[in-house]
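notes to self, project folder thing:

trying the whole complex as one job this time. last attempt i did each chain seperately and stitching them together was a nightmare. two parts in total, labels are on each line so i dont mix them up again. if this works i'll redo the older ones the same way
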Amino acid sequence: MTDVAESPAVPEVERVVIRFAGDSGDGMQLTGDRFTSASALFGNDLATLPEFPAEIRAPQGTLAGVSAFQVQISSERVSTPGDEPTVLVAMNPAALKADLNRLAGGGTVIVNEDAFEERNLEKAGYVDNPLEDGSLDGYTVIPIPMTKLTQEVCADLDVKPRVAERSKNFFALGLVSWMYTRPTEPTLDWVRQKFKGKEKVIAANIAAFKAGHAYGETAELGSHMVSIAPADLEPGTYTNINGNTALSWGLVAASQQSGLPMFLGSYPITPASDILHELAKHKNFGVRTFQAEDEIAAVCSAIGASYGGHLAVTTTSGPGVALKGEAIGLAVILELPLVIVDIQRGGPSTGLPTKTEASDLLMAMYGRHGESPMPVVAAYSPSQCFDAAIEAARIALTYMTPVMLLSDGYLANGSEPWKLPDVESLPDIDVTFATSHNATNDDGEPIFLPFERDENLVRPWAVPGADGLMHRVGGLEKADKTGNVSYDPENHALMTELRQKRIEIIANDIPPVEVTGDPDASTVVVGWGSTWGAISGAIRRLGQAGTGVAHVHLTHLNPFPPNLGEVLAKYDKVLVPELNMGQLVKLLRAEFLVDAKGINKVMGQPFTAAELEREILAHIGEG
Amino acid sequence: MANAPVTTKKDWATDQEVRWCPGCGDYSILTAVQLMMPELDVRREDTVFISGIGCAARFPYYMNTYGMHSIHGRSPAFSTGLAMARPDLDVWVIGGDGDMLSIGGNHLIHALRRNVNVNILLFNNMIYGLTKGQYSPTSEVGKVTKSSPYGSIDQPFNAVSLALGAEASFVARTHDMDRKHMQETFKRAHAHKGASLVEVYQNCNVFNDGQFDTITKRANRPANLIDLIHGEPIRFGVDNERGVIIDSSGNAVIVDVADVGEDALVVHDEYREDPAVSFALSRIAANPYSPTPMGVFRSVDRIEYAAGATSQLAAAQEAKGPGDLHALLRSNPTWEVD
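result (full assembly):
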C-alpha cells in the first residue's frame, strides 16, 4: 500500500466534518481518535467532539447505546468540531437513527449494511429498512458489508470469529483514511504498538484496515476522494492533546516551576478521572496521587498536604465540588494554597455525566457557607487547559488561597493540535516558606505570627518542621495576626474583610481583558470557558459577512480583570453565550450594572458556531 | 528524629487558656500527653496534632506543636494527606466518638486499613458534649438524652471491634483515670509504624457523668478491669480468681480459674496475625458496666502507607530518571511545522 496523501489527482477541499457513530462496543472512540491523530500528524488543524453514553455497555443496538466521535479537519484554523458533519459513518441502525438529523443536507452516509438486519432495525425503532425504503434519498448512501468483508480478510489469519468481527471499525477507518487521503503508517504503527504481544489482534486489525483502504479503490468510490492540505500553523513542534491531559501536564509544570512536590487527592468521577489516571503515571516527577475513599477525603487529604508544604490539588466534577464545599471553606479560613479542579458536566445531581455543560460557575463563586471568597479561573480550549492549570496554581501559591479551576466535559475529552511551549519560557512560581520569627512580643522576645500579612495581605506559609514556628490553624475564627481563637465581633469583621480584600487584590496581578473580533463594533460578546471556539468561529463568520462584533473571553472570573467594567461600558449591546441558564450574565449585571443578555444552551452539547452566528445576528437585529 | 532537645511538660503546652468544663476527663488526657511527649525523643517542630470537631477536637490548640483544628469527622483524611506528603513528621489525630465514629466513620476505617502512620486517640465519652448532650454512636441502647427522650434505639459501635474489623494493625484501649496506663499505651501507639487506634474511655462529667465508673474507679478496677498483658494468661478479679478462655465457638468467655485451671486461660498475644482472638476479647463487654479489657489488643507489622507511596516514587525515579517536562510534553506523537 502506498501513502496516497500526496496524490495530485484528488480534489482539495478546505475542511471536512466527519462523524463516526456506532454501538458503544463498536470502537468508535478509538476509530475517531486514530483518524484525528493521523490528521494531526499530517498537519491539519482540527477539533474533536467525543460523545458517549454514561453506561459502559448500554443495551447493544439501542439508541441509548450509541457512541459517536465528531472531528473537523481543515487546511485553515478551526475552533470547533464543526456545525454539521458532511460525512456520517454509521455502524448500525441505531447510530443512523440517532445521528442522521445532524448530517448536512446532501451529506454522505457510509453504513455497515451487515448490521441492518431485522433485530437491529427493530431495536433502533425502524419499521422498514432505511437503506431500502427511500428515506435516505436526500443523501449519498454508501452501504458496505463491513462485517462480512472484515471476516473474509481475517479468514486465513486463524483468529477467533469474535476478534474478526470486532475489527470492523478498522475497516471503516481504512476506508475513511483512503477517502481523505490520510497517511496510513501512523495508524498501522499505533496498532502494532497498542496490541503488542497480541499478534492475532494486530493481524486482524491491520488486515481490516487494509481491506477498508483497498475497498474504496475497487468499489470505484474515487469520486468521493478529497484531500485537505496541511494548515498554515505557526512554526513549531506540535502534538495533539485533549483538555484533561493538558490540564494534568499543566499541574506537573506548576509543580516544577514552583519547586514544590505535587499531591493530588482525588476520587474517581466522570469526566475528571483521566486527570487522576494521567498524574498517577508521573511519579518520577515527585507527584503523589491518592485515590481517597470519597470526595471529602480527597479534598481534606489535599489540604493536609498543603499544610505540609506541597502543591495540593483535588480534581472532580460538579457533584464532587458540592461534597467538598465545607472543606474548601476551611481552606479559605486557613489561607492555605489549594487547586480545586471542576470538570463540569450536565447537572444537577448525576445529570448527564458524560455530556458537557458549564453550569457550576455560580457554585464556584458562591457555593460555600459564610463569606468565603475564592479565585476562579476557567480554561477555554483543550490545549489552553495547560496554561490555565499553571495560572490556577500560581494564584493559589502566590496568594495562599484555594483556587477553583473550571473546565468541562467538552474540553476534557476534545482534542486539538497544540504548539508545544518552550519549557524554559514558562512562568516561575515563587514560593518562600517562612523560616524565622516575624514579630516580637511585649517582652521583646521574637515570636511567629502566622496571620501577619504582607503588602498583598498574604500570610506566611510556615510548614511543620520549621524551627520555632509552631502554630495552630483551625476553622474557628482566628484573631488577626496571632491566629488564636477569637470570638471578638470587631475581629471577625476585620478578618472577613481581609479575606475578601486579599482576593480582590489579585486583580492587579492578572492581565487586562483583550478585545478580539471587531473591537470598534457596537456589540460585544462576552464568553468564558469552552464556548471560546464557537464564539470565535461565529464572530469570524459574521465579520466575513460584514457584521463586526467584538469578543471578550474571560479566563479570570474572580476577581475579574481590572479593566472589564470599562471595556463593557463601551458597547451598546453585551451578549453572553453560556452552556447554562445564565450565570456569568448575572455576575456581569450585578457587578457592572450593564444590560447584558444571555444566549443559553443546556443540551449536553457545546454550541456550534452556526447557532451562535444566528443568535448573535438575531440580538443585533432587535435594534 | 532522634536526639531531640530535652524538654519538659511546659514546653509542650501553649499559652492558650484550656476551655473544657471543669472536671472533664479531657484534662487528664491532655496532661498525660504533655507529660509523655518529652519522653519520646521527638522535636515539637516535627509533631503535628490534627483534630476534627467536638470537645476533644480543641486539643491541638493546647499543644505547642504544629496543629490543625479541621472540620467535623475528617481529621483522618487531613492527616492522611499530611502523613503521605511528609513522612518525616509525627502525626497525632484527636477526636471524640461522634467525630470519629459517626460523621467521620468512613475516614477512620480507611485510614486504619491503609495503615497510614498516624496515632489516633479516640476520646470515647459515649455522648455528644459540644452540642449539649445528644446520644452518640457509642451510647447504649435505651440511652435517654435530649434527642432520644424515649431512649436510643441505635445499636452502638464497639470502637475496638470496629477497628479490628477495619484491618487496623494497632488497636488499644485505655482510660482517663489512669495516667500511667494512658502514657504507656500512647507510647506504644507512637512506636508503632502504621495507623494506631487508641480508644480512651473519657468521662463527660456534664452530660454523661460516671459512665465508666464501674470499671475505671480505683476501687472497682480489680473486679472489672481486665489488664491485657502480652505473654500472660488473661486474669483479673479481686483475688485474681477470674480469667478468660476462648470457647469451642471462638468466643471469649469469663470463667473462674478454679473451674478450668490456669492452663485453659487464653495467653494474650498482641502480635497474632489473625485478629480473631483480639476481636473475641473486644466482645467480652458490650458496655463498660461489666469486666472490660484494657491495653493493647493487637499490634502487627504491615507496610506503612506513606512508605509504600514513597517507594513507588523512588522506583519510578530509578527507572525513568527525574521528571523531564520537555520530554513529557513530547511523550505523544509530535510533528514539526516549518
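what i see at first glance: The longest strand of chain A covers residues 15-23.
need to look closer tmrw
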